[in-house]
Amino acid sequence: MINLELPDLPYSKDALAPYMSAETLELHHDKHHMAYVTNGNKFIKENNFNEDSVEEIVKNSYNNNAPVFNNVSQHLNHMHFWDVMKNNPNGKIPSELENKINEDLGSVENMKEAFINAGIGQFGSGWCWIVLNKGKLEITKTPNAENPIVHGHKPLLGCDVWEHSYYVDYRNRRPDYLKAFIDNLVNWEKVTENLNNS
Ligand code: MN3
User: 95 C-alpha to center of ligand 1: Å?
Assistant: First the structure.
């Protein structure tokens, strides 16, 4: 049976300031993500989910076992989220990814606008994404814990729009958080890697 583990952040807690503070990362990684790991392990055991990958458990528990799905999918979401961030003000997008964005989403400017609007448009908690769907980039949003893999989409870039992700730094201003994220917090090399590994 799989045992979920909290990964270390790939940067120090103060590395993403001023766009995301150390206080936010302490709460978000050490408390919120840890809780998904702890509860995920408990519910996996109690419900005998014997799959040996996190992705398989997420797919098999979707619309089938809410306690397992909510915690394990949030674990998957957060492992992705930590990995696609870095302190990268006005970060340059590798030309390979930029060409694909221009082709599938019109332009980088359009992509950013659509991404921000997806995050604003997600009522309540959830995520907005750049995904790969049948070889094409798309902007999507998902409610609560849902990861794009349950729809057959490959996540390339996800942003957490649960209030715990931005309330300390941006209070209720989710649009400001989303703009700071897409302009200054994305590790575009990592997003390109996700595209190439799909
Ligand atoms: Mn979160």
Answer: 30
Measure 158 CA to ligand 1 centroid, in angstroms: 11
In this prediction, residue 198 has a pLDDT band, given cuts at 50, 70 and 90, of: confident
Whether residue 68 is found in the same domain as residue 99? no
* Alpha carbon of 41 to ligand 1 centroid (Å): 18
> What's the rounded mean pLDDT across residues 36-65?
98
In the chain, pLDDT over 70 holds for what percent of residues? Answer: 100
For ligand 1, the distance from its centroid to the CA atom of residue 127, given in whole angstroms, is: 9
Q: Is the pTM of this model over 0.85?
A: yes
H/E segment holding residue 141: strand 136-143
Q: Are 60 and 49 in contact (CB under 8 A)?
A: yes
Last residue of one domain, picked from the residues 32, 48, 83: 83
Q: List phi, psi (to 5°) of 182.
A: -70, -30
